[in-house]
């Protein structure tokens, strides 16, 4: 491809002459008003990603518990959070922690027992109790599975303020009662 070269006799003018020549050819111009900046994309609303993940995990755990085999009359209830040492659960099973308060759920309906248990745990924690006993009964009079015992097992596993629980030693109610360790109250 050949480049266009000016004939040898022409003087090459500098850039300022070219700009002046262009302006004279165009004529007078008027400056446009400054244009507004284009609208920026709106910032996304702050999300609650961790809360959503926690909620999904809790729902998954709840659904998993629903599909587990129910607790039978003679079964021992036991559970501890991952951050609670195994020796704490062992001491709880042996009755080494003194129960500072007690709730007896005998003869309560499942709905009433759930409400009573939630309220009792909140009140006990507000009062500064660290260990409580919940008497749910062995479920010998229940048709099939012990309703209150299963309710206690499911509800206690779901609560964030419950560190661990274990069926009480024989002298304190055996498999008809459960000892519950509560997290200390904050603030």
Automatic annotation (TrEMBL):
Q: Which Gene3D superfamilies match?
A: 3.30.1370.110
Q: What is this protein called?
A: Smr/MutS family protein
Write out the ranges of the annotated region (Disordered): 1-50
Q: Which domain of life is it from?
A: Bacteria
Report the Pfam families cross-referenced here. Answer: Smr
| Highest classification ranks of the organism | Bacteria, Pseudomonadati, Pseudomonadota, Gammaproteobacteria, Lysobacterales
Domain Smr per the UniProt entry, residue ranges? 103-183
Recorded source organism is: Luteimonas rhizosphaericola
Recorded hits in InterPro entries, A to Z, give: Smr_dom (IPR002625), Smr_dom_sf (IPR036063)
């Amino acid at each position: 491809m050949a480049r266009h070269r000016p004939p040898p006799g022409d003087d090459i003018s500098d850039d300022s002459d070219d700009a002046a020549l262009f302006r004279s050819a165009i004529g007078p111009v008027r400056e446009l008003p400054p244009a507004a900046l284009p609208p920026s994309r709106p910032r996304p609303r702050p999300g609650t990603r961790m809360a959503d993940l926690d909620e999904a995990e809790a729902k998954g755990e709840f659904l998993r518990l629903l599909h587990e085999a129910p607790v039978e009359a003679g079964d021992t209830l036991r559970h501890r959070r991952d951050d609670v040492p195994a020796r704490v659960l062992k001491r709880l099973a042996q009755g080494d922690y003194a129960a500072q308060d007690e709730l007896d759920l005998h003869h309560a309906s499942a709905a009433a027992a759930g409400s009573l248990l939630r309220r009792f745990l909140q009140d006990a924690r507000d009062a500064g109790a660290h260990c409580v006993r919940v008497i749910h009964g062995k479920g010998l009079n229940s048709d099939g599975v012990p309703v209150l015992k299963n309710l206690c097992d499911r509800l206690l596993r779901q609560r964030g303020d419950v560190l661990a629980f274990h069926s009480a030693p024989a002298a304190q109610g055996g498999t008809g009662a459960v000892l519950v360790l509560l997290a200390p109250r904050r603030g």
